[in-house]
Known about the structure:
Helix content is 43%, strand content 17%. Helix 2 (37-46) packs parallel to helix 3. The protein has a 4-stranded parallel sheet with strand order 2-1-3-4, sandwiched between helices. It is an alpha/beta fold. The N and C termini lie far apart (50 Å). The longest helix is centred in the last third of the chain and has 26 residues, at 87-112.
Amino acid sequence: MTHKTILVISDPGNMNDNLYKWVSNANGFDLEFASTDEEAIELCAQRLYDMVLMDGTDFTINRKKLLSVVPILNSEAVLLAYQGEEIDTLDEKVKIAFDIKKMKRLQQLLILDSTGSDGVNGFVPFSLN
């Protein structure tokens, strides 16, 4: 199993202490960092990420721009905003976001694979009408 890749957008000089602690202890994730929204957009254009974590406590980051551009560059990425939560809360928030993404993917597969058992061997019966 490969590690999930997360792009963390936060100014390293002004990073919130709880976010810094979470980043330092984020085992099981491959983390990359961008200090500005422009740098994050460039990285998203070059590589696909499983999640983009925006630091909501850093007011120099233009979240509106990221919320509109990142889904165009990577429609599969989960966009998540950090709002100053504790480490455990942020960890739970990240896990829930990945669980929701997995459930949506499974739901889509089930919808695409929903063949009716109206006919023989699961095929829809032929009609001349």
